[in-house]
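#help-structures

NK: newbie question. if I give both the sequence and a SMILES, will the prediction place the ligand too? trying with magnesium ion
OV: yes, paste both and it writes out the complex. here, I ran yours:
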Amino acid sequence: MMPYGKTPKSVLPRYSRMGAYFRLLISCASEYEASKLGNATKQKVLYMVYVTIASWCFIYIHVSCWTMFGERLVRRIRENYLRSLLRQELGFFDEFASGQASSELTSNLDIIQTGTSEKVGICLASLSYFVAAYVVAFMKVPQLAGILVSLLPAYLMMSLGGSWFIKLYTARVTKHLASMTSIVSESLNKVALIHAFGAASQLERKLAEHFTSIKEESNKKAIAAAVQLGLLYFIAYSTNALAYWQGSKTLAHSVASAESNTNVGAVYTVIFLLINASYLISQVAPFLQIFGTATAASDKLNETLERSSRIDGTDLTDGKFLNAIQGSIEFTDLNCSYPSRPSITIFQGLNLKIPAGKNTAIVGRSGSGKSTLAALLMRLYDPTQGTIYLDGHTLKSLNVKHLRSCIALVSPDTPLLNRSILGNIAHGLINAPGLVDDERLTLTDGSLSRLVLRAQGRQPLEQALSSETTAVQRVVRRCIQAAEVAGALDFIMKLKHGFASSTGQAGELFSGGQKQRLALARAVVRNAPILLLDEATSALDSVGERSIREAIQQVAKGRTTISIVHRLSTIKTADNIVVLDKGKVVEQGTRHELIVAGGTYSAMVPLQNMTSGDSPDADRARSGMQSLDNIDVARKSSEKVDDAPADSKQPPKVSADH
Ligand SMILES: Nc1ncnc2c1ncn2[C@@H]1O[C@H](COP(=O)(O)OP(=O)(O)OP(=O)(O)O)[C@@H](O)[C@H]1O
Ligand SMILES: [Mg+2]
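OV: that's the protein plus ligand as structure tokens.
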């Protein structure tokens, strides 16, 4: 007897064959005497073995292929997402916290991986089993098949309803877990702050609240899962009862009417296939929700993936490259507001010229826009109006990566990466001008990390360095030299592993002043034509600051240096001092010129001298410092003007290091 009778083999996927072979076996049992049963079933059992082996192979192939596909897809999305994030301009991150980016990436990728891998294959296989099972069932015993179709909605309702509740409670548990994780990680990062403010018990209370919520939501989830499983078995057993009842009725009718088209095997096939098919469909029904969530997650990531950056610092094709940079800078009619606060204007038609090769200092009260000026120069943001020129070229016409390679920045928050001191200083060489190819290669091929590992072992850095290539040696020597210029060599050499010592998370293993020295070394090592120092020495003591100031003067020779400062002592030797207030340049000139002019700058000098003392003058000055509008009043009230030039009408008395 041929399996399936007249049914074309091509429409029947392999899964349904197993049911058909059961039919043959059962039919054999009824057709043959006990003595002949062994021989009659032998062939059918063999068929079943072949189908089992084929199933194993096909399942293995499709599950492994879909799993590999899911992993490859997720890897590609992760790479593209990170690349796309790193391309975005800084304004994008003002409204998109870095923590949010990483948690969004991780959770969305997990969802996509869950929704793509083997589940797609299982879903397709189950659907094909389902279709084939119903085709066979309707061909064999249409009446029985028609009745058993009724169990499908029950299965689907149980499956989708149950999964909806389970998903709801899982999401709540995940949300509380995420809040807990963020509290724990923030607390661990700020242990000192928590001790200082005695905030431990408050944190414990917050954690306990989350624990309670997690317990409640987990209990609800467990109840939903239990109800779902109970219903599954309830429907399955009820269906069995219905199927056997209807099947036996069909058989009885067939025997009574002497029709030969229904036998035990056919009835069993239909029952076996349809119960299996319905069960399988109910099992994969929740996958539809998972696929839906995966599509939503992918749409979310696509928003960032497909966003084109307004200022792309990674592109090497767009914009001009200049052969040599003199460093003359001009800001004309500048208006600017940050994307996160578009209604607040930082500059109102600011005009400023910064001469090439000179040291220009920018001063002004906090919030006057000094750092914003630096950010605009590096094209971290673009002005809303006005133009910025570098050597007569508009900044927007230059390649962004090239522009940034020409500027060495020391920013006020001195961010250090969690790696060795050598790695941090060498970071300044990435995208640095004038680096030869083999030196550039050492920054990316892991040679420096290997060297650091060896130096953290038993070999001193010098000894480990001797077996390295000359390119690595040149890079390391450059870093050591930069550290010396930045006054960092002394404290580095006192560390057990010297340059191979780790700086810790965000440089937490060092003091503020030491971090500033390392950040300065990182900028110095770049050897860029423009040096941009934003509060570069604010955390140093006056002795350290003086020595760094002298070192910077040496490094700054022949370069355009822009020093943004609060401490006026830092800019005694500046060629050009710019005073910013209320989004405008209110004064510009040499220190001498500004003091003679007797304007805002000359008023700031005695104020700074006095704020370090406890005299009544100092108190008066402190209250005057609250606004530059009050400076004039404060200046008149101060008796000692100790920063005036020798030829001014009132000779200065130098009382402090300013
Ligand atoms: N990323 C940002 N998004 C929105 N507003 C910002 C952003 N950065 C700075 N600002 C605002 O721009 C103004 C100028 O800030 P900026 O940092 O340039 O001042 P600053 O002169 O460097 O001050 P300080 O001397 O305190 O460093 C401030 O009012 C500040 O609140
Ligand atoms: Mg600033």
